């Protein structure tokens, strides 16, 4: 899916565009390095978010499951600059749970795309709802955006927080309160 030759050509043009010589010793291999890097950081484009949520286990428990502090790195689709932070995913099982690593892998699928944080948060929640079929899910993402901290307004340390609630988390404020209580502690 990723055309590495086009990326190499684009990086060469970019280097020329900023006034650099792509044949200079330190830059000669840069187009190839960038092409390989893009294949890695945009690997989520070729993945289906449901893939990791298909292996489930039966349970009698219907208490909240929370996987917190899932570190992610993504790329802002507006500036092609990184944004990074943590995602917290909670769900209330309806007879089925998924292996905990599968939630982190699902986050990775959606983070490894040109992305906006708001969409990524919703995509994670929607995937958990659709494929795990819990009673509800809540996702909270906290991230620093380099397009805001390194350029433009230049406000390092500022954090953007997004959330998505589905099912019982939309209907029951006490579940949202419990989610935030568990995050603190």
Quickly give the structural class: alpha+beta
**General form:** elongated
Whole-number average pLDDT? 96
Count of alpha and pi helical runs: 7
> How many domains comprise the coordinates?
2
Summarize the biggest pleated sheet: 5 strands, mixed
Q: Portion of residues in helices? A: 40-55%
How far the N terminus sits from the C terminus, by CA atoms, comes to 42 Å
Strand content is: 25-35%
In the sheet with the most strands, the strands line up as: 5-2-3-6-7
The CATH architecture of the largest domain is 2-Layer Sandwich
What is the fold named in CATH at topology level of the largest domain? GTP Cyclohydrolase I, domain 2
Give the H and E element order. HHEEEEHEHEHEHH
CATH C-level of the largest domain: Alpha Beta
Work out the radius of gyration.
19 Å
**Total strand count, please?**
7
List the keywords:
7 helices, 40% helix, single chain, two-stranded antiparallel ribbon, GTP Cyclohydrolase I, domain 2
Q: How would you explain this protein's 3D organization?
A:
This protein is an alpha+beta fold. It has 2 domains: 4-41, GTP cyclohydrolase I, N-terminal domain (GTP Cyclohydrolase I, Chain A, domain 1), CATH 1.10.286.10; 55-184, GTP Cyclohydrolase I, domain 2. It is 40% helix and 26% strand. The strands form 2 sheets. Strands 5-2-3-6-7 form a 5-stranded mixed beta sheet. The protein has a two-stranded antiparallel ribbon with strand order 1-4. Helix 1 (4-17) packs across helix 2 (30-41). The relative contact order is 0.15.
